[in-house]
Amino acid sequence: MTPTTNAAVAVAGWRKSSHSGDEGACVEVAVVPGTVAVRDSKDPHGPLLLFPPAAWSAFAQAPPMH
Fold first, then answer.
1. How far apart are CA 49 and CA 34, in angstroms?
2. 61 HSE (CA, 13 A, CB side)
3. What is the pLDDT of residues 3-59, one digit of tens each?
4. Alpha-carbon distance 1 to 5, whole Å?
5. What pLDDT score was predicted for residue 41?
6. pLDDT at residue 37, rounded to an integer
7. What is the arrangement of strands in the sheet containing 27-32, beginning at the earlier edge strand?
8. Running DSSP on this structure, what letter comes out for residue 42?
9. So what's the pLDDT on residue 54?
10. Which helix (H) or strand (E) holds 31?
C-alpha cells in the first residue's frame, strides 16, 4: 500500500455490506483514489484487501453463487 493509499484508507468512509445481517460476520468497503478497500468489520485495524475498481465492479455485478 502506498503512503497516499494508506492515508486515504485511514480517513475513508467505510460502509458495511447490506448482506451482513446482525451476526457479526461483516465486511466493510471503502472507495479510495484508484482502489476499493475491503476489511473485516470486527478487526478495523487488521489487514485489508485492495482491488482495482474494474475488478470490484465485476465481482459486485456477478450473479450469486448457490
1. 14
2. 6
3. 666 777 777 888 887 766 666 678 899 988 888 999 988 888 889 999 999 999 999
4. 6
5. 85
6. 92
7. 15-16, 27-32, 35-40, 49-51
8. T
9. 95
10. strand 27-32
Residues with Cβ within 8 Å of 48's Cβ and at least 6 positions away in sequence, in order, are 1, 9, 37, 38, 39
39 neighbors 20 (Cβ within 8 angstroms):
no
Give this prediction's pTM.
Answer: 0.75
Which of 18, 19, 20, 13 lies closest to 36 in space, CA to CA?
13
Which single residue is written with the C-alpha cell 474494474?
A: 54
Question: Which residue type sits at 64?
Answer: P
13 Cβ neighbours under 8 A, 6+ residues apart:
30
